Every structure is written in C-alpha cells, then in structure tokens.
Amino acid sequence: MTDWMERAVALDANDGMAWTRDRFELPEGVIYLDGNSLGARPRGVAERVAQVLDAEWRDGLIRSWNDAGWFDLPLRVGDRIAPLIGVGAGEVAVGDSTSVNLFKCLAAALHARPDRSVILCEAGNFPTDGYMAQGLTRLVEKAELRWFDDAEDVRAKLGPDVAVVLLSHVHYRSAAVQDMAAVNAAAHAAGALVLWDLSHSTGAVPVDLGGTGADMAVGCTYKYLNGGPGAPAFAWVAPGLAPVSQPLAGWMGHAAPFAFDRDYAPADGARGLMAGTPQVLSLSALDAALEIWEEVDRPALWARSEAMVAFFIDAVLDLCAGHGLALVSPRAAPRGSHVGFDHPEGYAIVQALIARGIIGDFRAPQMMRFGFAPLYLRFADLTAAALALRDVLETRAWDDPRFQARGAVT
Predict the structure, then answer these.
(1) What is the pTM of this model?
(2) pLDDT above 90 for 243
C-alpha cells in the first residue's frame, strides 16, 4: 500500500461515522464522487415508493390524501430538513423546483421592499439563479438585475436601491463559502433582504439560517439529501416576513384550499410558499431518504466532510504534482464538500476516470469536480480515486477519442 492508502485505512478504522455507509445501496466496483450532483439511493426508499404505489395509490386511491397523509407531506418533509438548515418546525415547505422557488422568493422580496428595485446577484453563481432573476426583471417593469464579480465582496455593492441579494452559500464551482452572518448583517444595515441558495450546502456543511438572521432560502434535495433525480426543492422564509406575497398563488398555498374561494388568501407560515398539488411519489421517496438524519451526529458528520475534502486535496496535490492541475477550491476551510481542479483536458480526464468506475463530473470550460458525500464515502475511496487520477494523467489515458465525445449532460 502507498502511504496515502495506509493513512486512509487508519482513518476509516477509527471513523465513528462509518456505519452510515451501510444505509445506502451502492453499486459494486464504483467510487462515487458525484453526490454533489445526485446523491446515492438510501436503503428503504424503494420499499417506501412501493408502499405508496400499491397500498396508498392503487388501494387507497383518493382516500390517501387524508388516510396516508399526502396533504401534509410538503410540511412534514420540511420538518425533517429544518434542523439541517437551522430553522424551526413548520417553517420549511417542500415542493416545486429550486428554480421555481427562487422565482417565488425573489418576487416576494421585491414586494417586501416596494421602494427598491435592484436584485444583486453574483455573476458566477449557478446559472439558474441568474436566469430566474433575469426572467423576473422582464416581467416586473421596475425591477433591475445588477451583477457583482465573484472576486468582489458583495457587501461593498449594497446601496439604497437594492431590494434583495441573491447568493449561494457554497459556490457550485469553487466550494467557497460565504460568511452568512456578515452578509445578512450588512444587507440589513443597508435595508436589503438576502435570499440564500443552499443547494450545495444542505447535508454537507453546517447551516444556521435562524442564528445568522437570514431572510429567505431555497435549496434542492437530490444532492446531499439523496432524494432522487428531480426530487422537489425546499423554500424557507423567516417567520418575521411571513406571510409572503409570492406570485405563484396556487391553491395549495391558500389559507383554506378546499373552501374554493374566488380570491386568494395566503396561508400562514410555510404553506404560503406552496403553489400546486404536491408531488406525492417524489416527496415520499425524499421522506424516506431523510430518515437517516434522525440518527446522525451532525457536528461529527460536518467534521468528517471537512476532513475528507482536506485529505483529497492533499493527496491529489502530492500524487499528481507536475501534471498541470490547478486547484480551484479554497486551500483551507471554510469550504463546501466538493473540490474543483482545472485542467485543459478536464472533460476527457473525467470520462477516463468514469470508465474506471470513479464517477466525478465536469464543469465548463475545464474544471473537474469531485464531491464528497460524507454519509457514504470512505477515505480509502478517496485515495483510490487520487491514485487513479495520477495514472490517467501519467499515461495520458484521457487521450482516447471515446473520452473526447461529449454527451448532453456533462
């Protein structure tokens, strides 16, 4: 064994969180370093979905909205997520996509600050965030989208016309972490609100919306929460701001949806963030996937996440030195639970690794991204991946035409 593998074996042998790996159905022969894009399937999810399909849908039919609790699923699942983002029971609604929830919350923020017109957004943020802001400004005549560069401090860009700041807590490329408390305080001092995108944070790093005085947040559930492909997203608004005036005033966000009133009246709390009928199948799968969090020592898991990131960075910089890799992510904490390395042949290198059973992902123009879902990875996996990366670089295995062809999803 290499020194790195010896270190990994020792770390795994003394890992008090190692039991969580057995709660996932992981394919043989695969090292999965893409849980930051799509989490692995937890045990129990298939059985839960089968129960919904058969006992609840086939047999229960429409009675299951009451008998199986379908109606309350968005808030019940939200209560499972609430402790992971530092908020209380009844404050999180789960439904729709992250993009749709961004639209709702941005519009609500503009409505809450009627004398202001600017949405302030990081230029290098995940594209859907900016796209949704652009779409909203085309609909709202007074609204304006203003960008700031990734290297700039958003706090220096706050002005009297800024209604809301839109930020990712963990950057999807670099894994750099924003100082949530400092940004919230600066925005509030300037009279603005902050909408946090927690898609690369929840389930990977500590988040404390309540303790940092946050206003709004959204996030996806198919990454570190392992809710499955296309799993519904969540939305949260600080209790002091509720009820919010969000534009997608669907019947499930009404205070009395089955009164069938002509005029809309928003429900109190998180239910006011809802729009259409809940996605029962996907919500049920997510509900089952989240059960593990009732048993997890969260501070220990956050420490494991950080230790894995640091271990992998050190291993790659040591083993792959001289092969043209450039670390994109912060060298030291705080940072998210993924790591980016630039290389001119980044796409082909990732494909060569995938062919060897090591699954990471690629982000244009040349970044290889490796995610460390702390619930099911081992340090030995990280060492094996670093060794394979070295071999791909040394042998130029990436220089194969089959690794150059790009699919629709990279």
Answers:
(1) 0.96
(2) no
